[in-house]
Amino acid sequence: MKAMNMTMRRKRRKRIKESFDRGHPVAMAIRSLAPPDSEISEAARERMMVRLFSLQRRMAQNQSPRYHSRIKYRLVPAVALLVITAILAAVLLPMVLTGKKPVNSKQFASVASRTGKVEVMQPAGKWRSATRNEKLGEGYKIRTGAGAFASVVFPEGSIMRVTDSSEAALGPMSKKAVAVDHISGGTYHRVHSGTRYVVTRGDVATRAVGTAFSVENRSPGNLEILSVENQVEVAIGSHQPIKIAEGEVMVVSTTQGESAVKSPVSRERLSDERLRASVASDAQEGYKTGVYEKLDVSLETKEAPQSEPAASAPISLDGTASVKGVSLEWNSPQTTGYKALVLLRSEQSEPEYPGDEIARYADTSITSARDDGVKKGQTYQYRIAALNGSDAIAAYSNTVVISVPDAGPEPEAVSVNLTATAVSGDTGVRLAWSVSGASRFSGFVVERVVEKAPSNSDTPVGSTTTRTIDSTNVYFTLLDKAVAADHAYTYRVGLVVDGAVMVYSAPVTVEIAKL
Amino acid sequence: MGNERIQQRNNRSGVLKVIPGEADGFPDRLVHEALTSPDALESLCSHYVPRIYNYVLRRVGRVQDAEDITSTVFEKVIGNLESFDESRASFSTWIYRIATNTVTDQYRSRSRKKESSLDDDVAEAGLAGEAGFERTDLYIGLLELLERLPVKYREAVALRYFAEMRVQEVAETLGITESAASKRILRGLDELKRLASGGPLEELL
Question: Which ipTM score applies to this complex?
Answer without folding.
Answer: 0.81
